[in-house]
Design goal:
Distance between the termini: 44 Å
Structural class: alpha/beta
CATH class of the largest domain: Alpha Beta
CATH topology of the largest domain: Rossmann fold
Order of helices and strands: EHHEEEHEHHEEHHHHHHH
CATH architecture of the largest domain: 3-Layer(aba) Sandwich
Strand order of the largest sheet: 2-1-3-5-7
Radius of gyration: 20 Å
Helix content: 25-40%
CATH superfamily of the largest domain: NADH:ubiquinone oxidoreductase-like, 20kDa subunit
Number of domains: 2
Number of helices: 12
Bound molecules: iron/sulfur cluster
């Protein structure tokens, strides 16, 4: 466990950095616009947060760094290494950072050169692109704050936990639990919709199902290896989905999770066209 409490004199406010690698900037926008951020803004010192101040620097010495985005370029990788060096606690902020996000879907499907050619043709770019990966592939991550983007109450929970010198505990139950509490009809059972709620960690209050849209798994699997993608794949097969549809669905946000392919392989066999 890592906390921010330590001996200090002078300005003892926790120093916070908010950084973005390759991303849509939605997570830091969410953090910047959390209603209660005003209440705690004088209790922390934002040393680096480009969305709030152009005086920010990369990378500042901070107690807690929130890092949004996937590692998708050489520059991302260099910046991430610097951030890690200058941070006591590092939090992966949002789906891109936690699991690579939708931009990492090609992992195991297409190599980076083929993907680059598919998008940019023979154009020469100065940007040195990489296959998009979660930040944990490159540096130690202390805590994970999932979501696309994360929920306001979870952002406040994380910041509050750090402020009082404790640590944020991950949820260990699935979206289905919140979905049932919300009183939604089950669109998987009743309509055969490809909902990933049974294997995805809760925290969004079943946001998508509340809008009659099946879960695509942006928050990532429930922890402690209790996300039974194999069992859910069998259910999807019974509901009429093809093997290819099941794989694609489960890997939108899960292409970097070896457990998913292992479990799918046990049910579906090898990759199918
Ligand atoms: S996790 Fe979602 S909201 Fe956050 S940067 Fe990635 S795409 Fe944007
Ligand atoms: S709709 Fe989806 S999240 Fe809700 S109970 Fe059914 S499977 Fe679970
Ligand atoms: S229902 Fe699923 S896809 Fe929608 S916000 Fe929640 S975890 Fe993400």
């Amino acid at each position: 466990m890592m906390t921010i409490i330590e001996e200090c004199t002078g300005d003892c406010r926790p120093r916070v950095g908010v950084y973005a690698l390759t991303s849509c900037y939605g997570c830091q926008l969410k953090l910047a616009t959390v209603q209660k951020i005003i209440d705690i803004s004088n209790m922390v010192s934002f040393e680096s947060f480009y969305m709030l101040s152009s005086a920010s620097k990369m990378a500042a010495d901070v107690d807690v760094a929130f890092v949004e985005g996937s590692v998708s370029t050489e520059r991302d990788l260099e910046e991430l290494m610097e951030i890690r060096k200058h941070s006591r606690i590092l939090v992966a902020l949002g789906a891109c950072s936690v699991n690579g996000g939708v931009q990492s879907w090609a992992e195991g499907e297409m190599d980076h050169d083929a993907l680059h050619k598919c998008v940019y043709g023979d154009s020469k770019l100065t940007m040195q692109g990489l296959q998009a990966t979660p930040i944990s592939k490159h540096v130690d991550v202390d805590y994970y704050l999932p979501g696309c983007p994360p929920e306001e109450d979870e952002i406040m929970y994380f910041i509050s936990a750090f402020l009082i010198g404790t640590f944020p505990e991950p949820k260990d139950y699935p979206v289905c639990a919140e979905c049932r509490l919300a009183g939604n009809p089950c669109i998987l059972i009743e309509r055969g919709e490809p909902c990933l709620g049974p294997v995805i960690v809760a925290g969004c209050k079943a946001r998508c199902i509340g809008f009659d849209v099946p879960c695509v798994g942006c928050r990532g699997p429930v922890p402690h290896e209790t996300a039974w993608f194999d069992s859910l794949a069998q259910t999807f097969l019974r509901k009429g989905m093809t093997e290819k549809q099941i794989r694609q669905r489960m890997k939108i946000f899960g292409s970097h999770d070896p457990n998913i392919e292992r479990m799918l392989h046990s049910i579906l066999g090898g990759e199918t066209e």
